[in-house]
């Protein structure tokens, strides 16, 4: 396996600060541009796992870039360029402190809540008698707060967002409109690939008073996909759906006694496990984009990124 990029410490021209997230490292260039490096770190249950996954950053960055380009007619987005396979450069936005989660199907955390008797999520009332992986009559929006590193995101309702002044009524109406339109586009693209876009999240911010779509979109880290073929049969039989998402990593961790709770230890990530996760991400990439994945090989990823980004910023 190639090496994985798990840590960055660049000093780009015009750099003012850097933010190290769970997976992405974001460099502030002159308070005007952001250089977002998609590392090969992988997180689950809000914990960054000890081993990086080769090519994961490249895959996530390239999927997000394709979907950002495919949705510019819906709303403006932050992307300016992708000077390196693992990097997107974009305009600096002031982010809304909420993530817009949109769900087309009852599964994951929403199913776990529903199964325990919950019938309202983020102020959205859910019908009685639903089953796991069932399609909602219409997609629902269930926002969360954006937590600091190491803390869990919390569900929040539209009413609470407005009451706390996290967005104005006009801004929130536009966030909802963009969220549903982007999800519709993502659903249509997925369908052409034989996939179902189950749920996803979007982040928005403001640049010069205009709302922009930020960050990644429709990647397997931010979204859940089912294979369309066999969905109805599996649903009818109450069987688990074949998924294209990071869920397989969570399942491996849970099978080995880890759910991010205090006192639990991350299971050993052997080279075989790391390779299997990398191979699975490549499968995700090729299914989601319909294109063969071209590995950007190279021993010194940091040097390559530094040169490509510096060349872009100084041209």
Name the quaternary structure. single chain
The strand count comes to: 17
Given as residue ranges, the uncertain stretches (5+ residues, pLDDT < 50) are none
Q: Give the % helix.
A: 25-40%
What series of H and E elements makes up the topology?
A: EEEEEHEEEEHEEEEHHEEEHEHHH
Find the structural class using helix and strand composition: alpha+beta
Quick summary of this structure?
The protein is 32% helix and 26% strand.
Structure description:
The protein is of the alpha+beta class and 315 residues long. Helices cover 32% and strands 26% of the residues. Strands 8, 9, 12, 13, 14, 15, 16 and 17 form an eight-stranded antiparallel β-sheet that branches. Strands 1-2-3-7-6 form a five-stranded antiparallel β-sheet. A two-stranded antiparallel ribbon has the order 4-5. Helix 1 packs parallel to helix 7. The radius of gyration is 19 Å and the shape is globular. The relative contact order is 0.18. The mean pLDDT is 94.
Topology:
Blueprint: E1 15-20, E2 24-29, E3 33-38, E4 43-44, E5 47-48, H1 56-69, E6 79-84, E7 87-91, E8 94-95, E9 98-106, H2 108-115, E10 120-121, E11 124-125, E12 134-141, E13 144-145, H3 158-163, H4 169-192, E14 195-207, E15 210-214, E16 223-227, H5 231-237, E17 243-244, H6 247-255, H7 271-289, H8 301-314
Antiparallel strand pairs: 1-2, 2-3, 3-7, 4-5, 6-7, 8-14, 9-12, 9-13, 9-14, 10-11, 14-15, 14-16, 16-17
Helix pairs in contact: 1-7
């Amino acid at each position: 396996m190639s090496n994985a990029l798990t840590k960055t410490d660049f000093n780009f021209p015009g750099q003012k600060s850097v933010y190290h997230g769970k997976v992405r490292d974001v460099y502030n260039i002159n308070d005007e541009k952001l250089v977002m490096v998609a590392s090969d770190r992988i997180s689950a249950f809000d914990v960054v796992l000890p081993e990086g996954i080769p090519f994961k950053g490249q895959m996530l960055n390239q999927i997000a870039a394709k979907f950002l380009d495919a949705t510019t007619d819906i709303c403006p987005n932050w992307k300016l360029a992708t000077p390196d396979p693992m990097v997107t450069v974009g305009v600096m936005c002031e982010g809304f402190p909420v993530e817009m989660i949109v769900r087309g199907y009852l599964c994951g955390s929403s199913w776990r809540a529903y199964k325990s008797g919950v019938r309202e999520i983020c102020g959205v009332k859910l019908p009685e008698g639903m089953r796991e992986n069932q399609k909602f009559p219409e997609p629902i929006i269930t926002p969360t707060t954006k937590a600091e590193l190491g803390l869990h995101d919390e569900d929040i309702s539209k009413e609470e967002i407005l009451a706390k002044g996290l967005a104005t009524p006009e801004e929130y109406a536009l966030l909802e409109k963009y969220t549903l339109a982007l999800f519709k586009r993502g659903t249509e693209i997925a369908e052409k690939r034989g996939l179902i876009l189950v749920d996803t999240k979007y982040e928005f911010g403001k640049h010069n008073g205009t709302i922009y779509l930020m960050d990644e979109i429709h990647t397997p880290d931010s979204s859940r996909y089912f294979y369309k073929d066999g969905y109805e049969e599996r649903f009818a039989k109450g069987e688990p759906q074949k998924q294209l998402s990071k869920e397989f990593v969570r399942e491996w961790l849970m099978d080995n006694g880890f759910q991010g709770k205090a006192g639990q230890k991350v299971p050993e990530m052997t080279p075989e496990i790391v390779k299997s996760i990398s191979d699975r991400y490549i499968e995700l990439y090729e299914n989601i984009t319909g294109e063969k994945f071209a590995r950007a090989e190279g021993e010194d990823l940091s040097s390559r990124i530094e040169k490509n980004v510096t060349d872009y910023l100084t041209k």
